[in-house]
Amino acid sequence: MPFDDASDVPDDALLVLYANGDGAAARELAARHLPRVLAYATRMLGGDRAEAEDVAQEAMLRLWRIAPEWRQGEAKVSTWLYRVVTNLCTDRLRGIRRRRAVALDDAPEVTDGAKSVEVGLVENDRMTALALALDTLPDRQRQAVILRHIEGLSNPEIAEVMDIGVEAVESLTARGKRALATALAGRRAELGYEEGS
Amino acid sequence: MQDSDLDDLFATARREPAAVVSVGLMARVMADAEAHQPRAAKPLAAAPRGGFWRGALSAIGGAGALAGLSTATLAGVWIGFAQPSAVIAVTEAFGVEGSLIETVDVLPTFDDFLTEG
């Protein structure tokens, strides 16, 4: 490895190193991005870890493939990955819903309650409630809310990821937040939010 | 649910530790990386050895260059032997008699050396 501390090397440069045959650069890129990619995919897919791992692997595979043609300075690797994961998750969700719709014909007794695991800690309760509420949002709103409020991307970055304008992002996040507030309205006390807090 | 409650929920979600990547997933991702890593181009195989004429032909640039070279050679030989009548016509047109042209023998011919012994 020609450099001592890989953490100082920008993503672009690591991609070039990888494309030039440096295996350690791939390891560093995976260490940097895979956890975030996996977390985002898991959230997008409503907590389905196995599907999320598949998506994360596929997203990284696309990064390896595009490495030789990567144009430096045009896009951030993280933004590019968010975009790929968003598209992959949208496709998967479409497939999952189709399968679920078919399955529902045979077994109509499927409730969301089965998904919520009772845990003693308030924080876990809150995260479960948030995940379930996010699941009720339309895909685009959920993507925008997760990217803005959980992944911490800026509106222009989200616009790039979702291939829409900044105004559309603002509208999606605002509507998504309102819908979340409505979905969680009945659980306020249950989640430990006191009146007036 | 108030906005501040939602913000608190988001903040909690952001504080959650990043997803733990399983050893299996990391291994699969690294295997993909290795499989799709561009390989350095293979060194070119040594050119097959040819005979002397093949070498000479490629040294001057192939069959096309050989044809050009032959044409130029033949043209040179023809120009050297042929009577330069066109040039004579030009000098006559200027009214210069062949005998009037003073010539300086820069390089004496061999005959002079021979006669002097």
Description of the structure:
The complex is a heterodimer of chains A (197) and B (117). By secondary structure, chain A is mostly helical. Chain A has two domains: 8-110, Orthogonal Bundle (Rna Polymerase Sigma Factor, Chain: A), CATH 1.10.1740.10; 112-191, Arc Repressor Mutant, subunit A (Orthogonal Bundle). Helices cover 67% and strands 0% of the residues of chain A. Chain A has eight helices and no strands. The longest helix of chain A has 30 residues, at 77-106. In chain B, helix 3 packs across helix 4. The interface between A and B is large, with 43 and 32 residues.
Q: N-to-C terminal Cα separation of chain A, in Å? A: 54 Å
- Named CATH topology of the largest domain in chain A: Rna Polymerase Sigma Factor, Chain: A
Mean pLDDT over all positions of chain A: 84
Tell me the helix content of chain A: 55-70%
User: What is the percentage of strand-forming residues of chain A?
Assistant: under 5%
Shape descriptor of chain A: globular
- The CATH class of the largest domain in chain A is Mainly Alpha
Spans where pLDDT lies below 50 across 5 or more residues of chain B: none
Largest interface: A-B, 43 and 32 residues
* Count of helical regions of chain B: 6
Which descriptor suits the 3D outline of chain B? elongated
Q: How many β-strand stretches of chain B?
A: 0
